[in-house]
């Protein structure tokens, strides 16, 4: 057989690399940074990142600061100059919470520090770099098991390694796949015991791009490669024999290329219009002010988007009151349900293994976000410490969906027609991350009644498995093995998604919060006391320690969960509180000794509350890649610290079971789930009682574009 | 004491009457009907109901038909002429399902029949009136226990009865309430054993309207009256002694009258705009056609709004395919959690006791429904058989909320930027019913990907209880008794809401549907077979009988629930199906022997599937008022009919627990919950793969109104 041309290989390997870790990243000359030009971004929103300064203690590192970290690191460890040490993630090391809370606009910023997670000499380093003093003030080596987020270099290297193997090349050729059509992705390794310890490994799984851009639907099943990323060598190749590669027909999804007719009537143009412009302001690039809300927003390499210091104005006094100090998706856990070779390790932790920031590509105006959206860029560090700009990564927009925020119809007083209704207008902050095949859209939605809704919507491509079968009838007893047949030779492998949110609630201040479990307990009425035989009674339990707050939801044992500040009482004496309201959810059913579940142990409960600990940000640990699960939310919570009247953090895990169906092929209609944080005796009364209705005289006058 | 002036009493009693049963009903001279003039309705949508003809077998009775029923009934039973017999509900008696399905536009309509539920001589009659032959073809007397929906006359009568009692009048006067400020409502009786059998009874509970239109927040607690509606006599008065009447301050909610400042920045006008107009058509008043959907919609006295014959076009062939024959809220059940005198019987069944149609007042344009909404009127019968028009009772509108129907970002092929995203535009059908204090907004939302979402949003006023306490600190151990203190002297009584939907699914036809329970079962991996120790495996169980389909949802024992047509296979052999996807939910925890739960037994499970039976429409039975629970979904399901490969009906109960909080006072911010019906192997693949994105050139150009 002919060895594949290296030049051609590089071309498409470069593509895989872009796919998994770089997306919009483009590198300029050593001393500068570049913004990848995006065709559809709005030029008027572009900011000159090279001159940006931080304005707020929580503002992300600027381009200049990232460059300075690089200089400082080069002085600390020559590896950062030579390239033998690599930066895997870099973010602002946020100042102590109390310093941030006490800071006022106009004050000098607390000292700026960077947290850098790096690999040097095969060791994981978690470093704190002080930008003011120019020193590395802390350098923890292997603080826990596990490795940092993968870099694009790791993935690039991994993708190249199989081609060193004659066996691999022969297997590809034997399947009749042209090397120029080959597209390989790199499923993560997970952790399955000592055999795979001591070096970073990754899997390589290939597809064919022939006749489609949707290579995910054309797996080259049965060929599984494990490589060592550090030593650049193949560890294991398994070729279980050929499985038919599913056909390309019907898989293309790009507009204008997929030409199948859509059997539906034309939908006239529709748009949320605000001819006076949006009502929110973004001050200094990150402080958002809208209606009665203010919050800080930033892009983050790991969490994607972070909301901080969310405050809402009191409806009586107008004072800003703290609700949530910090909220972000702390980890994603996506275990697949196939114990077979080539699939058993597929249990992704996308935030800690890949990062939700660099995979959040520029949003598509008018389609990912409506007109009048405001876009915010991400600024990250490349593996060699150069600044990278991810344009239009976050959008902010106001939403009016035709819904009602409150209403009542009444005709009590004769000749007076009471039909009062108030429209619901909300503010949405959005990011969409494409972690390989899946796309996740993260929304934070703020309502004027004080409610915050977090929504995760999933779309993109399934991770499918090639199958010898073309029809369900041919499957016989094998039907249920890995999942349902969703197209000829394509099995949609059953999997779960768990997204664990870090919700650092600071209801009316950081220090004095408690979790109150409001239990709805069925009471039996003693005979003769009432014609009723039963009713529900509310009993409140204050969680004393973290183990009291390891909570599994149950439809038939219902609780409300309130974070209250017992030191802030309402006029009538109720403590100020916010409830977490779960929506539709799914629980992890994997055994607790199953390696993926050990690492994803934060999905063992739907709700947790822990004592605030600055280092406990990521539910799966700081170093997640090949982690053993010794630094998870479960481990922290089992320490059982006191959480009564303390600075506490609420964690919520939102889950989906996904049994794929034909409609998920070749790209999935969006599926969404959400939870809410809702005021509960936080305001004295309905805070939007005095809100105005819409009047026709205020609404815009619109013409079709063509006729204007 | 002075007896209250009857003239003044009538004035406000007339108001209560309007509040509870008539709303927009106005009666004209004997031979005609009138439309109540609503200030804010859109005159261009008005139709001339007097000349309307039915165009479709499911079209509701027209004004002329209602008048004809009245004539026929007068010939059948002289009581209908004299007024001694009363019509409690009237609706089209729908033709046999197969006749409706076989009917094509242009065919003659199947014979038109009315189902009339009436009281005559103290007996409940369920009658079928044939309009073509002019005969009462069926007249079932007391087919089950229970009485028909209350009429406005019942409620009017009930409200007057207490004033016959000197004890009642003295109690009111003793509390210092002016008779001119008195507002009395009529909580229903429930059923608590033989003492209350044999006559129709109702409770009367009074409030004061002094200084507020929001009398619901000013209960005259401790005074409870039970009256016999048929004999017009007081059965029981309980005066437990005076409880302070909560103050009026802060309770007013009408715009411009409540003048408290709202502490928030101005929100600029925002509107969903469609300068080319909406994309849906409403043919012959009731057939809605939009995108790939077609369905019949009508107002109904009992269910409020009924969706029928929902069909979606096949994405491959364009053929219309049946999804759901009929969907509507079959019953609402709202048990309060206070076993005390005056409260134990509060367990409402609003559809069967009051009707969701007449209580659905005209929607408020721009606020209940957005611009470009299309309004549909309801046409009902008055108790004496005259036609009544409920204007603008239902609205239809297209929604674009800035969301995404599918997306994927990819950069695989060098120099090609793949970021494909499709906006989500949906069609919403909405009704808002004000059943006394509570407002329920019912939405049916249709997506182009085949998904149907039903949403129930609750707003309006709490049913509150007067309390001697002004502050939580004064309550001591009493805190949890009926519910939390939410304002001075106001307890928000804990309660549940259960809305049971009748979902007559006809997936690809009526005759051959089955329920498949798709179980996600945790498997233990045998040692040594895989590095994994567990995974989930999908196993499918076809429900054989109704008892197999009495389903309680469980987070830790998850199933998907598919209604499939085993006779309609996809290309690869999967049966066509639709899944029901629960959202956030709550279960009834009341004991099964508790009288309200016996009557509301349809809330014993979240999901049920029954064999189609024409007479099993209403989950709480045909005659719900004072019913004993012998005609509920539980009773039918326990008959355990076969449901495999049959015409079957899916029932879903959506629930809320409601522990009130201060924010619910004096009017509640909307709380919503929903469920979805989603295609599962119904389409060969994603049916909206070929949908177009939004382009700037197509979107409208808008100006602020003031400047236009």
Automatic annotation (TrEMBL), chains A, B:
Q: Does the keyword Repressor apply?
A: no
Residue span(s) of domain Copper amine oxidase N2-terminal: 56-138
Instruction: Give the molecular function GO annotations.
Output: metal ion binding; oxidoreductase activity
Keywords from the UniProt entry: Copper, Disulfide bond, Metal-binding, Oxidoreductase, Signal, TPQ
Q: Where is the active site?
A: 350 (proton acceptor), 438 (schiff-base intermediate with substrate)
Top-level EC class, please? oxidoreductase
Q: Where is the Copper amine oxidase N3-terminal domain?
A: 148-245
Q: What is this protein called?
A: Amine oxidase
Give the Gene3D superfamilies listed for this entry: 3.10.450.40, Copper amine oxidase, catalytic domain
Report the source organism: Eruca vesicaria subsp. sativa
Pfam families hit by this protein: Cu_amine_oxid, Cu_amine_oxidN2, Cu_amine_oxidN3
Cofactor, free-text remark: Contains 1 topaquinone per subunit.
Identify its protein family: Belongs to the copper/topaquinone oxidase family.
Q: Which cofactor does it need?
A: Cu cation
Description of post-translational modifications = Topaquinone (TPQ) is generated by copper-dependent autoxidation of a specific tyrosyl residue.
Source taxon at top rank: Eukaryota
Q: Where is the signal peptide?
A: 1-26
2',4',5'-topaquinone occurs at which residues?
438
EC number assigned by the record: 1.4.3.-
User: Domain Copper amine oxidase catalytic, which positions?
Assistant: 271-688
| Biological-process GO terms, alphabetical | amine metabolic process; response to abscisic acid; response to auxin; response to jasmonic acid; response to putrescine; response to salicylic acid; response to water deprivation; response to wounding
């Amino acid at each position: 057989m002919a060895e594949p041309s290296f030049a051609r290989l590089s071309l498409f390997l470069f593509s895989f690399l872009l796919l998994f870790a770089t997306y919009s990243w483009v590198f300029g000359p050593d001393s500068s940074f570049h913004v990848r030009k995006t065709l559809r971004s709005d030029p008027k929103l572009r900011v000159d990142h090279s001159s940006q300064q931080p304005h707020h203690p929580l503002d992300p590192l600027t381009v200049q600061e990232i460059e300075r970290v690089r200089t400082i690191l080069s002085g600390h460890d020559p590896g950062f100059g030579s390239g033998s040490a690599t930066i895997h993630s870099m973010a602002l090391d946020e100042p102590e919470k109390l310093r941030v809370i006490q800071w006022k606009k106009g004050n000098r910023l607390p000292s700026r520090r960077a947290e850098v997670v790096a690999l040097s000499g095969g060791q994981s380093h978690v470093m704190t770099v002080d930008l003011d003093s120019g020193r590395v003030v802390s350098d923890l080596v292997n603080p826990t098991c596990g490795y940092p987020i993968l870099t694009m270099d790791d993935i690039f290297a991994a993708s190249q390694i199989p081609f060193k193997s004659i066996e691999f090349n022969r297997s590809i050729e034997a399947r009749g796949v042209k090397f120029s059509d080959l597209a390989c992705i790199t499923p993560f390794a997970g952790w399955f015991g000592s055999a795979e310890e001591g070096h970073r490994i990754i899997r390589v799984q290939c597809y064919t791009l022939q006749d489609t851009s949707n290579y995910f639907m054309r797996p080259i099943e049965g060929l599984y490669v494990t490589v060592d990323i550090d030593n650049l060598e193949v560890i294991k190749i398994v070729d279980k024999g050929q499985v038919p590669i599913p056909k390309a027909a019907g898989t293309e999804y790009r507009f204008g290329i997929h030409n199948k007719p859509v059997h539906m009537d034309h939908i006239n143009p529709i748009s949320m219009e605000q001819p006076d412009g949006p009502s929110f302001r973004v001050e200094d690039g990150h402080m958002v002010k809208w209606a009665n809300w203010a919050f800080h927003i930033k892009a983050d390499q790991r969490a994607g988007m972070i909301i901080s210091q969310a405050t809402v104005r009191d409806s009586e006094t107008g004072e800003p009151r703290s609700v949530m100090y910090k909220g972000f998706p702390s980890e994603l856990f996506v275990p697949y349900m196939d114990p077979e070779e080539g699939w058993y390790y597929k249990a992704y932790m996308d935030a800690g293994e890949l990062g939700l920031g660099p995979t959040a590509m520029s949003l598509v105006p008018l389609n990912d976000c409506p007109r009048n959206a405001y876009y915010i860029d991400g600024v990250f560090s490349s593996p060699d410490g150069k600044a990278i700009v991810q344009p239009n990564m976050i959008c902010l927009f106001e939403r009016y969906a035709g819904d009602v925020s409150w209403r009542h119809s009444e005709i009590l007083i004769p000749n007076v027609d009471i039909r009062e209704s108030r429209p619901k207008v909300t503010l949405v902050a959005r990011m969409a991350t494409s972690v390989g095949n899946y796309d996740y859209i993260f929304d934070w939605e703020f309502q004027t009644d004080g409610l915050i809704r977090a929504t995760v919507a999933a779309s993109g491509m399934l991770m499918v498995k090639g199958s010898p079968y073309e029809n369900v009838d041919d499957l016989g007893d094998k039907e249920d093995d890995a999942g349902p047949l969703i197209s000829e030779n394509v099995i949609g492998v059953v999997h779960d998604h768990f997204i664990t949110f870090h919700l650092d609630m600071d209801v009316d201040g950081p220090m004095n919060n408690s979790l109150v479990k409001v239990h709805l307990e069925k009471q039996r009425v003693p005979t003769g006391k009432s014609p009723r035989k039963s009713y529900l009674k509310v009993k409140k339990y204050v969680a004393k320690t973290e183990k009291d707050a390891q909570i599994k939801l149950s439809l038939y044992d219902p609780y409300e969960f309130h974070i209250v500040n017992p030191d802030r009482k309402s006029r009538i004496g109720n403590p100020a509180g916010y409830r977490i309201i779960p929506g539709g959810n799914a629980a992890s059913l994997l055994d607790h000794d199953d390696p993926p579940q050990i690492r994803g142990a934060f999905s063992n409960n739907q709700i947790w509350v822990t004592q605030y600990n600055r280092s406990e940000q990521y539910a799966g640990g700081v170093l997640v890649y090949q982690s053993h699960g010794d630094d998870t939310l479960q481990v922290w919570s089992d320490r059982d610290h006191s959480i009564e009247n303390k600075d506490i953090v609420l964690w919520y895990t939102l889950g989906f079971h996904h049994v794929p169906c034909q409609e998920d092929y070749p790209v999935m209609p969006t599926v969404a789930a959400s939870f809410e944080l809702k005021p509960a005796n936080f305001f004295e009364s309905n805070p939007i009682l005095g809100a105005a209705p819409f009047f026709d005289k205020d609404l815009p006058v619109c013409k079709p574009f063509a006729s204007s």
